[in-house]
Amino acid sequence: MSIEENKSVITAKNIRKEYVVKKHFLTGKVKEKVAAVKSVNFIVEEGKTLGIVGESGSGKSTTGEIVGGLQKPTYGSVYYYGKNIAEMTAEEHKEYRRNVQFIFQDPQGSMDPNYKIGEIISMPLFTLNIARDKKEANKMVDEILAKVGLDLNIKNKYPSEISGGQCQRAAIARALIVSPKVIICDEPVSALDVSIQAQIINLLKKLQKELNIAYIFISHDIGVVNYMSDTIIVMQNGAVVEAGEAKHVLLHPAEEYTKKLLDSAIIN
Ligand SMILES: Nc1ncnc2c1ncn2[C@@H]1O[C@H](COP(=O)(O)OP(=O)(O)OP(=O)(O)O)[C@@H](O)[C@H]1O
Predict the structure, then answer these.
(1) What ipTM, to 2 d.p.?
(2) What average pLDDT score do residues 192-220 get?
(3) Residue 267 — pLDDT band, cuts 50, 70, 90?
(4) What share of the chain in percent tops pLDDT 70?
(5) Candidate from 20, 62, 184, 235 with most ligand 1 atoms within 8 A of CB, to mutate
(6) Quick one: which atom of ligand 1 is closest to the CA of 218?
(7) Taking CB atoms and a 6 Å cutoff, what residues make up the pocket around ligand 1?
(8) Half-sphere exposure (CA, 13 Å, Cβ side) for 174?
(9) What's the maximum distance between 2 C-alpha atoms anywhere in the chain?
(10) pTM score, two decimals?
(11) What are the residue boundaries of the ABC transporter domain, all occurrences included (predicted)?
């Protein structure tokens, strides 16, 4: 392992993901596959943000899901602090799942509508044996709600009873409460009003500074990705077409595709 990889919290090496889209109706033999992700490589350093940008269908979400362990790659490997996640023991895998959290585009859709916000945020404390009892869990929920700028009375509300922005703050609280090393933010502001988008982006920035969390920040909006990221990969048709320091990629885009993403961000 190189020194550079040693410093990284996540390393993705030659990740490829193929989906079977056609099988023989009698034999079940695979007739057609599509590659959603092709040979993707990157490093995410502690406390830094890697932005993944690209148009719809370019493979961003699939990449995030593979890194977060929600899907297995067809080829390639993901390393968490140098340990291949496919070779982890059950205990190591549990620890990795705790340390790599997600925030999705639709926070309401990612929460069970039958539970109150307080229960939703405290749930991982019990499933991961972090809190000893309800009192301790409640104290931790109160602390995390203050961190994400939510009023304590939100604990007794259902996801359907709060706004999209409040719900995304609650989703951030649920991710944060287990003290993760990485949060995979998959289009976390795309579904929100423009005025709320800036609040959530700035909250994520503030939390990163305070808690030294790394983000994998996925968005089709190169402007938002630029604001959030230290390094960027630009994806097209499942492949990385450009990668590097955010400032450099944005100021000196080498690819026509990146220039087009930049033009559309300026118009918007
Ligand atoms: N389960 C699946 N079966 C077949 N094809 C899939 C599956 N999941 C994703 N794909 C295809 O893989 C490609 C990449 O999808 P992915 O969702 O990762 O892209 P994306 O960049 O996140 O796009 P979006 O922003 O629209 O979600 C797309 O062409 C998609 O249709």
Answers:
(1) 0.94
(2) 94
(3) very low
(4) 97
(5) 62
(6) 22
(7) 19, 21, 34, 36, 54, 56-62, 220
(8) 26
(9) 58
(10) 0.92
(11) 15-262
CA 107/CA 105 separation, integer angstroms: 6
How many whole angstroms from its chain centre is CA 182?
8
pLDDT digits (tens, 9 = 90+) for 53-94: 999 999 999 999 999 999 999 999 999 999 999 999 999 999
Q: How far is the CA of 59 from the centre of ligand 1 (A)?
A: 6
Instruction: Report the candidate in 197, 178, 190 with the shortest Cα–Cα distance to residue 218.
Output: 190
65 close to 19: Cβ distance less than 8 angstroms: no
Spatial neighbors of 64 by CB under 8 A, at least 6 apart, are 52, 102, 184, 186, 216, 218
Q: Which amino acid, one-letter code, is at 42?
A: F
Lowest mean pLDDT: which of 5-14, 100-109, 143-152, 189-198? 5-14
* 3-class SS of residue 187: coil
What the chain holds in terms of domains, given with CATH numbers, is: 45-70+93-267 (3.40.50.300)
Q: Whose CA is nearest to atom 12 of ligand 1?
A: 36
Q: How far does residue 5's CA lie from ligand 1's centre (Å)?
A: 28
235 DSSP β-pair partners: 54, 240
Q: What is the token pair recorded at 55? A: 């148009």
Give CA–CA dist 191/20, Å, rounded: 30
User: Where is 267: in which H helix or E strand?
Assistant: helix 256-267
Distance separating alpha carbons of residues 170 and 110, to the nearest angstrom: 11
The four Cα atoms 138, 143, 145, 147 give a dihedral, to 10 degrees, of -170
Dihedral angle, C-alpha 63, 64, 70, 71, nearest 10 °: 0
